[in-house]
Structure formats: structure tokens, C-alpha cells
Amino acid sequence: MDAIMLKKLGMTKREINVYLKLLEYGESGVNNLARGLGENRTSAYSLLNAMKKKGIVSFYAKNKVKIFVPTDPTFLVNHFIDGANGLKKILPELLAIHNKYGKTKPKITFYEGVEGIKQIGELLLEVPKSTRLSFMGINENIHPEIAKYYEEDFINRRIEAGIKYRGIVTGKLPMGNKYKPTEKAQLRELKYINSKKLPIQIHIDIFPNNKVALYSYHKDDLMGVVIEHEAFFNTMKTVFELAWAGIDLGF
Length: 251
Description:
It is a single chain. Strand 8 and strand 9 (about 210-220) form a beta hairpin. The N and C termini lie far apart (about 60 Å). The chain is built from eight helices and ten strands. It has helices at about 15-25, 30-35, 40-55, 75-90, 90-100, 115-125, 145-160, 230-250, and strands at about 30, 55-60, 65-70, 105-110, 130-135, 165-170, 190, 205, 210-220, 220-230. The protein folds into two domains: about 5-75, Orthogonal Bundle (Arc Repressor Mutant, subunit A), CATH 1.10.10; about 100-250, 2-Layer Sandwich (Endonuclease, Chain A), CATH 3.30.870. The protein is an alpha+beta fold.
């Protein structure tokens, strides 16, 4: 079991050890629990009181002795999920405040590795029912974990969120595996260009809240940057629209 995941429920490493031991015992007095953990009684008692305030354990009295009981794991996890869903509901408001008061302060964030590229993907899902503009350079050197993330996770969630995109493309795009492999089903409007004549070797996304992402998912070169700045965002939108119109004119 990956006990470290319990940190996401707000537990410290010592609290995780106590909680798991209590789950093993079902319930326990302080003395017995301290022996099982190799802790002294005073330290264990202090820790249990802190955990009680967090709702991780409870207790009842038996012959004037406190018997501690672990909170049902299902309750803990559901409580965490409910809290996360509540925060997700107010995310658009938080982003609106951030955009209103922070748009004059350029922000540049760098990302590296598989997890870094996935983080950029998660940013692209922030605004449901939106449209993103993309320059997409795809080739056979895409990192296999990133390809799997797009096909089995990211694209499906993008479609579910109603996020469309218009893209200028070289190469073959990954597709969400839950939807038909058509532009309409994948919520895409694409224009393809000759990769030899006009090579695109990275991916550029222009998307809501004044963000522009530039990144590579080449298996040997996983890196990216997200720039949040109104003037940069508006200029990149203009560059995209010029390129989009230019393709129809044969440029």
C-alpha cells in the first residue's frame, strides 16, 4: 500500500503510522497503541489528540480509559472528494479574480518531464465550453506516456468539457479513444500544412485567461513554458488568425 497517498487527506507521516496501526487493531487504548508503534505514551497521546481535532480518530470511555477508534476510511476519502469538488466549483471565480487583478503582471512558468507536460494539459482543461487555438507539430517521436495520456485521458475529458480547438497541424494527431475518430466527434477544426515546407516542431496553445503554452512532447525533449500576459496572448491570437487565413490563400 502506498501510505504516502494518505498525505493527501491531510495526515503527517506519524499520523499515517498511527492511523494504519489503529485500522489494524480496530480500536486501542493509548498504552497498547504506543507499544505497537514504538512510541512513548505521552507522545502517542498528544498525537492522537491532534488527530481527533482533524477528525481522523475518535474515542470513547471504557472503565475510565480512553479507547481510540480510527475514522472509517470511506468517510475520510469521501470527505476529501467532497472538499475537492467544492473547490472545483469556485475555480472559475478564483480564476476571474486572478485574471482581473493579475493581468498586468506577466507570469512565466516552466515545466519539464512527463509530469510537467501533463500539468500543461491540465491547464488547458480549466475553462469548459471554451475554444483554444493551436499550432501542432506531431511526429512519431512523441513520448509513449504522453501519447497514452492524450488518447486515454486528456482528449476524452476535453471533449466531455465541451472544449473545442482550431488547429494548424503537421503530422497525425492523437484521438480520444471514447469518441469517433472524426473532426466533429473530437471537437476539432483542422488545417494541415506541409511539414517539409513549413515545419512545426513544437506545440503552441493559445487559450483562455490570457495563457499561451509552448511545449515539446518529443520523447527526448520534454519541456514547456506557459506565459500568462494579455499583450502576448492577444498578439499570438493575431498570429494564429493570420496563419489560418493565409492557408486558404495558399501562402
